[in-house]
Structure formats: structure tokens, C-alpha cells
Write a structure and sequence with these properties.
This is Glucose 1-dehydrogenase. The protein is an alpha/beta fold. The protein has nine helices and seven strands. It has one domain (19-201, 229-254): NAD(P)-binding Rossmann-like Domain (Rossmann fold, 3-Layer(aba) Sandwich). Bound molecules: NADPH dihydro-nicotinamide-adenine-dinucleotide phosphate.
Length: 263
């Protein structure tokens, strides 16, 4: 390779910068979403957080500082999504990065899951993710620029007991990434997923029900032998959103201490 070409490829820390970018993070007020927002702000992005609880969002924005805004919204109210995205862009400018993070879990034996239970999980984790992606994707396609990141789960990679609706929803989102890669790539819109393993958040601790044996079992399956921190997911998301990943689309990146490989 000629030396001039090598020099042009010299490492620039700025490829990880999100300076000048606006990121919309659903469920950004707490748990993993808050840490994604925090990591993005640290590398220069402005962030918009959404969620149902205003007091949680307010507190998050206070911690994040002047680069953060929030909009109260229940993503399962699908009909409100176009107006939400319009209001965000009117107030904050074009959305460059969408992180579909908001999600719920429900732990029950499959035979005890009611139709209402199933619909609730699918509506939050799948249908709302599609609606949000369609609304933001449309705008990104028009601008020929954007990055969409789905937060899926190791449940989309292997089977976990008592989370049938959750697994179905996350697997479907992983499928959506593949379908949309082919549709969105010609318009310079990238779409990827981050698949977290066991991350210390209220959702995961509740799912473990304070049962130490379940925690031990989870760690037995994790080669690195530790729980992940929410900012482990945050930094992976920054990477996928940044120019460092400008030729990466259609992938699901596990952030799981090797859990999806197992022993
Ligand atoms: P938390 O329960 O801690 O946070 C979930 C967030 O989603 C909250 O901010 C919540 O805000 C928001 N949310 C939930 N429902 C709605 C709704 N209807 N409308 C708007 N916002 C909503 O979960 P985690 O941080 O642990 O999970 C974040 C993502 O990571 C989820 O998609 C989850 O499936 C995924 N994940 C997590 C793992 C873990 O180990 N923690 C492992 C694998 C995947 P509010 O209640 O105010 O609406």
C-alpha cells in the first residue's frame, strides 16, 4: 500500500466523536438507556430522552446537563409516534441517531401467558420499535444520512425459559435489522443491534427476583464471570453510531462477557 494512503488512514480519535449529532434514545431516563445517553453526551452528542415517567426523565436530564432534553411519551400509543418525532425535530433539529432502547420483560411459564400479556410485550418491544424506526427512518432516508440502533438481547440469540413473549419480540427485532439493512443502505442509513447479556439494571434485578441461585446460574454461563455495567452497552452503542462504524450495517453485536458463546 502506498505510504500516502497509509497516512490518510492514520487513527483519528474524532472518528468516535458524535459532536454535532442529535440522538433520540427511547427509555433514556433510566437503566441502560440513561447510560447510553451519558456515553453519547461524553463524546459530544445532544440527546433526547423519552419515557412515560416525567420525574425520572427530569432527573436524568438534570444529571446529563445542557445537551439533554426529554419528551414524555408512551411508545405503545403508536398513533402518537409521528407527532412525537415531528415535535422533537421541530424543537431540537434533525435526528441523526435513533436508539430503540425502551423495552419490558415478563417472566412467566409460557402456558400462563395471557393474550393480553403477550400483546403488551409485543406492542412495546416490537411494534413500537417498528413504528419509531419507520418514522425516523423516513426522515433519515430523505436526508440520506442516519444510524439506527436496536437494543435486543441474548434472548434473540439462544433460548431462555419463561420469557416467551420477550424472546419472540427481540428475535423479531433482530430480523427487522436484516430486512431494513437491504432497504435503508442505498440511502446511507445504517441499522444495527446491540444484544446485551446480563447487565445490572432494575429490569434484570427484578427478573432475577432477588434469587441468588438464578444470579449464580447466569454467571455460570458467562465466560467473563461478571455482570455487565450499563455503560458497557453505552460505549458499544456509541461505536455503532459513530464514523468508526461507517461501513458496518446489519449486525447484532453481543455485549455479554461471552455469554452467547457459553462454555
Ligand atoms: P429498565 O426497566 O431499567 O428500563 C426500561 C426503560 O424503558 C425505562 O426507561 C422505561 O421508562 C422505558 N419504557 C418501558 N416501557 C415504555 C413505554 N411503553 N413507553 C416509553 N418508555 C418505556 O430496563 P433496562 O435498562 O434493563 O433495559 C433497556 C433495554 O435493554 C430493553 O430493551 C431490554 O430489553 C434490553 N436488555 C436489558 C438487559 C439487562 O440485562 N438489563 C439484557 C438484555 C436486553 P418508563 O418506565 O418511564 O416509561
Amino acid at each position: 500500500m502506498p505510504e500516502s494512503t497509509l497516512n490518510e488512514q492514520t487513527f483519528q480519535p474524532s472518528v468516535f466523536s458524535l459532536e454535532g449529532k442529535l440522538a433520540l434514545i427511547t427509555g433514556g431516563g433510566s437503566g441502560i438507556g440513561f447510560y447510553i445517553a451519558n456515553c453519547m453526551v461524553q463524546v459530544g452528542a445532544r440527546v433526547v430522552l423519552t419515557g412515560r415517567r416525567e420525574e425520572v426523565l427530569q432527573e436524568a436530564v438534570e444529571k446529563l446537563g445542557s445537551k439533554a432534553e426529554y419528551f414524555v411519551n408512551d411508545i405503545t400509543q403508536l398513533a402518537t409516534i409521528p407527532a412525537l418525532v415531528e415535535a422533537i425535530e421541530n424543537k431540537c433539529g434533525p435526528i441523526d441517531i435513533l436508539v430503540n432502547n425502551a423495552g419490558i420483560n415478563m417472566k412467566k411459564f409460557a402456558v400462563e401467558v395471557t393474550d393480553e400479556d403477550f400483546d403488551k410485550v409485543i406492542q412495546t418491544n416490537l411494534h413500537a420499535v417498528f413504528s419509531m424506526t419507520r418514522e425516523c427512518g423516513k426522515r433519515m432516508i430523505n436526508r440520506k444520512s442516519g444510524s439506527i440502533i436496536m437494543i435486543t438481547s441474548m434472548a434473540a440469540i439462544y433460548g431462555i425459559d419463561r420469557v416467551v413473549a420477550y424472546t419472540a419480540s427481540k428475535s423479531a427485532v433482530a430480523g427487522m435489522v436484516k430486512a431494513l439493512t437491504t432497504e435503508f443502505s442505498p440511502y446511507n442509513v445504517r441499522i444495527n443491534a446491540v444484544a446485551p447479556g446480563f447487565i445490572e439494571t432494575p429490569m434484570m434485578l427484578t427478573a432475577m427476583n432477588g434469587d441468588p441461585s438464578r444470579r449464580d446460574k447466569a454467571m455460570d454461563r458467562t465466560p467473563m464471570g461478571t455482570w455487565g455495567k450499563p455503560d458497557d452497552v453505552g460505549w458499544a452503542t456509541v461505536f455503532l453510531a459513530s464514523d468508526a462504524a461507517k461501513f458496518i450495517t446489519g449486525v447484532s453485536l453481543p455485549v455479554d462477557g461471552g455469554n452467547s458463546i457459553g462454555f
